[in-house]
Structures are given as structure tokens and as C-alpha cells.
Amino acid sequence: MIETVVSAPAVAAVAVHAAERVAGVRVQPGLAGLVSSVVRVARQQIKGLQPAPVEGVRVRWAGSVAVLEVDVAISGLDQAAAVARAVQRSVRALVPELTGVEVESVLVTVVDVEW
Predict the structure, then answer these.
(1) Is residue 37 part of a domain?
(2) Domain-located, residue 3
(3) For the chain, how many structural domains are there in total?
(4) Model confidence over 77-100: pLDDT tens digits?
(5) What is the mean pLDDT of the segment spanning 56-62?
(6) What are phi and psi of 36, to 5 degrees?
(7) Record's InterPro entries (predicted)?
(8) pLDDT of residue 37 exceeding 80
(9) Are 103 and 68 in contact (CB under 8 A)?
(10) Residue 4 banded pLDDT, cuts 50, 70, 90
(11) Residue 12 lies in a domain
(12) How far apart are CA 52 and CA 73, in angstroms?
């Protein structure tokens, strides 16, 4: 039997893509994500790697399933709760499809509203 391991940054990159498929959404790191983002990007640039966008998404593991936190900026023309639900649906559908990782939950935080 072959076991496939998917890293947290790979899951985060897919989650960014899934969230940004929702109209009027841009994934944007909150304050907590900025610090880890700077460290990760610097480490990858030293190694000569081109990092996939993962800023604004945090992945924790609950056993073999992922718990995701996604920070987004939304259009001021949209209802925040409806957009957050659409982001949750998109992430919950695309992450398992592209990575095979089961998603336990997706917490969406609206960090900015753009007018």
C-alpha cells in the first residue's frame, strides 16, 4: 500500500485558489499570518524556490483531517456572511478534490471590505 503525504503549504495553496474563485474575494493575511508569511517567503527565496501563494490561510491537522482558517478581503457590495459561506463551500469542495485531504472545518474571517 502506498501512502501519500500532502504538506500544509500545498493544502493552503489550494485553499487560496478555491477562496479566490468566489467573486469579489481576495485572500489577504491577517496580522497573525503576516509574520509567518515573511519568514516562509524568505526561507524559500534563500533556497531559490518560487513560493505558491499561501498567505492568508492557516492549516492545522486534527489527526488526518485539515482544519483551515482563511482570511479574506471582500467587495463592499456583497453581504459578508453570504460571501464567507461561499468561500467555505469552495474550499471544502476543492481541497479534497485536488489533494485528497479531508477538510474538517473552514473558518473564514473577513479582514477587510473594499469599496
Answers:
(1) yes
(2) no
(3) 1
(4) 889 999 999 999 999 999 999 999
(5) 95
(6) -65, -30
(7) Asp23
(8) no
(9) yes
(10) confident
(11) yes
(12) 19
State the pairing for strand pair 65-75/103-114: parallel
Q: What φ, ψ does residue 51 adopt, rounded to 5°?
A: -70, 140
pLDDT of 29 reads 86
Contact 11, 66 (CB under 8 A): yes
**Residues in CB range of 104: below 8 A, 6 or more apart:** 62, 65, 66, 67
Q: What is the pLDDT of residue 13?
A: 94
Task: Let me know: does 61 contact 103? Beta carbons within 8 Å.
Answer: no
Strand, coil or helix: 33: helix
In a domain, 35, yes or no: yes
The grid cell for 53 is 501563494
Print the domain residue range for 101: 8-114
Q: What is the pLDDT of residue 1?
A: 76
Whose cell is 463551500? That residue is: 89
Average pLDDT, the chain: 87
Q: Grid coordinates in use for 34?
A: 503576516
What 3-state DSSP class applies to 44? helix
